[in-house]
Amino acid sequence: MTNQKQTGSYYTPQYLASFISKRVLSHFENRTRMSILEPSVGDGAFISELAQEENININLTALDINKAELNTASEKWNKKTASFLETDFLVYSTAKQYSAVIGNPPYVKKNILTSKQIELSKEIHSNEDLTEASVKNIWTTFLVKSNTLLSKNGVLAFVLPSELLQVKFAEEIREYLKNEFQRIEIFTFNDLMFECKGQDTIVLFAYKKAEVKGEFFTNISSKESLEQNDFTLKNNSLLVESNVKWTHHFLTSDELTFIDKLKNKLKTVNDYSESKPGIVTGANKYFIIDKETENEFNLSKYTKPIIQKGLFVNGSVVFSDEDIKKLEKNNHPTKLLQLNDNDKISKKLREYLDIGELEDLPERHKCGIRKNWYVIPNISKKPDAFFFKRSHLYPKLLKNNSDALVTDSAYKVGMRNGYDLNSFIYSFYNTLTLLLSELDGRYYGGGVLELIPSEFKKLSIPYNVVSNKQFDNFTTNFENKSNIEQILSQNDLNILNPTLGINNEDLLKLTEIRNKLKRKRLRK
């Protein structure tokens, strides 16, 4: 699938366009005529499918801002009843109400939109009593505006990013959909349905009128399942009524109730600790250097040790100065260039700053707003611990026994009065907390798990006090583990039983739920 960052074009595979088109048309099978709007026609995948309909006379309106693509799409339409318009959907104005709006809207983040597009998006959302916070990506505005153009028994069918189901700004959009449509169908997928790295997608069908009302979900395991209509849509009202992300629609009401009951008995990460984002350099590849670059430009008096990303701290729960040395020995960037406004600029430092200016770093937003573009603000003391916001097999919380700082790939963690860091880290590594990380976090194409600050802070922790000797044993076991499941099997009852009274049967249930969540994220 072609990805064009500026236009947000993610072109739809033909089999998916075929499935969506046929499902929409089947809703109108008793009609002889209908009107369809495609607000961002792209390469015309949906046009090809709709053109094959013989029983319903379709009056088509197709829009796109790209004239060449619009012309290509128009060549796929073999009927007279169509209008192909070169325009931005955000400015499109009509009194017409459509039987269906269908397509794959662009995915463009707010910071890439023009000022005019941002203002139009705000206006469209405001007219539907939605806040400005929901204007984060242009697909949300396409969704909202498309709804306003539907007839009273219309159908909306869109290919959308999985953000709709799981990110904070989309909560308001989900509520909007629930209020505007009697029936919602969500199709999620085991595999990326598009050949596009990192973009996880879903399909949404929303019906203004329906005999069987509610929110229905299904997960598609293969392309063949779609083509053969081999799937079952299931209602999950408890999920929809709660704050659980819709990506977890495959959890049962019993499982959701069980989890909720346990986590509500516990305090959270935020009760025990304070956490803040790590250092924002504005250009990690420039400001975080390796030993060779440090020596070449005589920068050692200006550098401090730093961990650039979570990939560099695999396998342990304690990070030491020895670990920094190992990273340095393997030629990883471990040196943060920390300059001050009153530093005297040496000849060699000037040479390095010239490189940054040739790369236009002073023009970057985060560098440009500084008094001197090369002086990184808010570099505080080294953190006591750090939690890396992105992870793969399991989240990573580490004690910092080194002098290293950390980038904003992690949250700096310090304990509140009365609580012990060793006990906090030990208590974090249990099946319930790791399960909640899967449940409260979000994931994207490739299966990377991410927890934003608010999601990390609200994680429930069954806090148990341990001695230094117990923590040392835990650290040794952690470093020698074959996988995280080994640690969980050793620690779960010791951590969860004293705080929650969990027995082996409950623990097995928690483990099965966590594995189900993890398999879905990793597409196993």
TrEMBL record:
Q: Which reaction does it catalyse?
A: a 2'-deoxyadenosine in DNA + S-adenosyl-L-methionine = an N(6)-methyl-2'-deoxyadenosine in DNA + S-adenosyl-L-homocysteine + H(+)
The question of whether S-adenosyl-L-methionine is a record keyword is answered with yes
Report the EC code(s) recorded for this entry: 2.1.1.72
InterPro entries assigned: DNA_methylase_N6_adenine_CS (IPR002052), M_Eco57I_C (IPR054520), MethylTrfase_TaqI-like_dom (IPR011639), N4_N6_ade-DNA_methylase (IPR050953), SAM-dependent_MTases_sf (IPR029063)
Name the GO terms of the biological process aspect: methylation
Please report the stretch or stretches of sequence annotated as the Type II methyltransferase M.TaqI-like domain: 51-191
List the Gene Ontology MF annotations in alphabetical order: methyltransferase activity
User: Which keywords has UniProt assigned to this entry?
Assistant: Methyltransferase, S-adenosyl-L-methionine, Transferase
Which residues belong to any copy of the Type II methyltransferase M.Eco57I C-terminal domain?
244-496
Q: Which superkingdom? A: Bacteria
Pfam families membership: Eco57I, M_Eco57I_C
Q: Which family does it belong to?
A: Belongs to the N(4)/N(6)-methyltransferase family.
Protein name stated in the entry: site-specific DNA-methyltransferase (adenine-specific)
State the organism named in the record.
Answer: Polaribacter ponticola
